[in-house]
């Protein structure tokens, strides 16, 4: 396939390189001038979009997606698919889907989970919103860039699934960390805490697979001085997207709201932005009750 790739950052560059390695003809563009192995660099997003079967975007946020979409949609061939893999707000995904429909283009929102390691290893999971026809066209590309693509429904539903998942993740990490911090103060060892909770009703992915306590449970960023992993700043972005969506949909998300404020304080008022989001544990362990 002829593929255009816009946004060759930490995630986009390895994803584009994997498509090129699998034999697709890939042209790429990034405002920062970054490139990817096997990908032909071109001078603008509009040029990347011309004559392609699929144009993939992997960008920082919904405003940038909307701006790039308005540049590239007029350049794309009718019947081509715009495949956005960025994590953006549901409203932006649906707005770009509408523009694509008017222009007789396919559109898929397909945010990912799996992080930089998953992008490099081709093991991402895609949460996909959009039509079955567009999905059928993009499926061979999902097979190269990832291990799983779940069709979640119409356009925007991929983003909805992603932020609901990450709201659970963000809330659960805060809950796991505050329980460890309480256990410390009650004189319970972290090993005993892990052994009990990981096999009891309080178990979770954050406890069992990504334990925030160093030296306990499987290897995790806690064992590497909380180097990300998944940076607290990225978790804050996703928590904010969940709260923005909750507001737009008039959904009550009390735990999401409190957890979002915890990450905001950690990232914006403290030193947490570049640390893994599980560094919420040393943060809470150092605090007193307010
Ligand atoms: P990044 O900042 O490394 O990459 C984004 C790239 O987009 C940058 O290289 C930037 O120069 C480029 N860009 C910005 N504006 C542009 C424009 N107008 N035209 C062309 N290029 C432009 O970010 P990333 O870590 O690669 O993340 C990309 C997306 O994937 C984000 O939406 C993020 O939330 C999501 N995501 C990231 C991770 C992760 O672990 N890094 C995991 C899951 C999802």
Topology diagram in text:
Elements: E1 2-6, H1 12-21, E2 25-29, E3 40-41, H2 45-49, E4 54-57, H3 62-72, E5 81-84, H4 90-102, E6 106-109, E7 112-113, H5 115-121, E8 124-130, H6 132-145, E9 146-153, H7 157-185, H8 190-197, H9 205-208, H10 232-249, H11 254-269, H12 280-285
Nicotinamide-adenine-dinucleotide binds at residues 6-12, 29-32, 34, 45, 58-60, 64, 68, 86-87, 112, 115-116, 230, 234, 237.
Explain what you see.
It is a single chain. The longest helix has 29 residues. The protein is an alpha/beta fold and 290 residues long. Strands 1, 2, 3, 4, 5, 6, 7, 8 and 9 form a nine-stranded mixed β-sheet that branches. Helices cover 49% and strands 14% of the residues. The radius of gyration is 20 Å and the shape is elongated. The mean pLDDT is 97. It is built from twelve helices and nine strands. Bound molecules: nicotinamide-adenine-dinucleotide. The site of nicotinamide-adenine-dinucleotide (NAD) has 26 residues, from helix 3, helix 5 and helix 10.
Descriptive keywords:
290 residues; alpha/beta; nine-stranded mixed beta sheet; 12 helices; 14% strand
Q: Tell me the β content.
A: 5-15%
> For the terminal residues, how far apart are their CA atoms?
58 Å
Task: Enumerate the distinct ligands.
Answer: nicotinamide-adenine-dinucleotide
Percent helix range: 40-55%
Overall pLDDT level: 97
Classify the secondary structure makeup into a structural class.
alpha/beta
Instruction: Give the total of beta strands.
Output: 9
Give the number of helices. 12
Question: Helix-strand pattern, N to C?
Answer: EHEEHEHEHEEHEHEHHHHHH
| Gross geometry | elongated
Indicate the radius of gyration in whole angstroms.
20 Å
Uncertain segments are none
